[in-house]
Amino acid sequence: MPIREVVSRCAPKAKLWLWLASAVVSLTLAAGTVYSWTHAGSRHAPVAEKGVTVSSYAEAEAAVTPHLPQDRVVPRVSTGVLLNALQFINAHNVKATGHIWQHIPPGFPDDIEPGVLLLEAEDPHCPKKVFEYPLGENRVIVWSFSTIIRQQFNYEDYPLDHQDIWLRMRPVDMIHPVQLVPSFESFPPWDGKALNGLDPDLVFGDWTPDYTVWSLNRQEYSMLSHPGLSNTDELYFNVGVSRGLLGPMLGRIVPVLLLAVLMFLSLFVITTDPDRRPISGFTAFAIITFSVSTVLVVAVNDNAARTEIGSAGISYIEYWYFTLYVMTLLVALNATMLLHGAFSKALAWRDNLLPKILFWPLFTGIMFAATLGYLGV
């Protein structure tokens, strides 16, 4: 049997095996990316980024005692929080509404003013006293607040990010030493997953609550080192949240995949057959027009994502856009090389088959590498 006949018979099977290998590699890399997404939550959810977490009075006392003066007694004021509403206004502003209360024990010094400052709020003095009542030997004073809190969130893993929203509190009395501690007696035995301190009907929108924890953090202020001013550990009430994937998936990832599909289909318009070029519309002008249009669409989506998260660095989602930039360049380069006859044997083989075979493994490979770099396995 002539060699040419053998080759002609085996060629269709070889082409089929190449497509099958391309599909297997692409699906494997895509599955690895999705697997990393599903396991990103348990690995990357932060727990109280500020200070030392505490879940009992004993832990709170152990955290604050080393920082307090040993020559006098510093009153501890049991402080509780109930959040009724949390809403992301923009990338770094959160609107918080809720109540704060304090248990004032008998014999509490009259010259110390009860209350808290919300240090990162628009108005740190925003809590307004609404009522007080006796509880056993103590007095309970309740304040309400509604304010916008500004924080520096980390959007590096967007849209698979997790954030730690906190209320940063210190005593309103800056002269007398007073130490705020969590009001554990107001809650069941503290369990972060129980979401104590949150209104059960609190609406999170695109976010899912992960935990609530207390933490105590020592901040050194140079002005508070002078006589007449007091500095004690700041009390943080932390709420961990995870972004829901459905919204970013529909708004960010699906358009990227659609653009990738269109780019892949454009490879079937590119042909080495001069007789088919007028039918397919394969011209240099068509290549430039398609490439410019794709780059503009990707750039608009990229800019919208950066505006949404307000990040100065590079987030995970942007690697999807960078990949599209690369694939657009490669598709345009492939078409240009065909028109000019560069690497004609490799590109002309089976009517530009190699670029078609390599498109999805290259695309999914870049995305899998970016996912491993940001999220891990």
Would you give an account of this structure?
There is one protein chain. The protein has helices at 3-38, 40-44, 57-64, 246-269, 277-280, 284-309, 316-340, 344-348, 353-375, and strands at 52-54, 76-88, 93-104, 116-118, 128-135, 138-150, 162-171, 179-182, 207-217, 234-243. The protein is built from nine helices and ten strands. With 377 residues, the chain is an alpha+beta fold. Helix 4 (246-269) runs antiparallel to helix 6 (284-309) and helix 6 (284-309) packs antiparallel against helix 7 (316-340). It starts with a helix and ends with a helix. The strands form two sheets. The chain has a five-stranded antiparallel sheet with strand order 1-9-10-7-4. Strands 5-6-3-2-8 form a five-stranded mixed sheet. It has two domains: 20-41 and 247-375, Methane Monooxygenase Hydroxylase, Chain G, domain 1 (Up-down Bundle); 50-243, Distorted Sandwich (Acetylcholine Binding Protein, Chain: A), CATH 2.70.170.
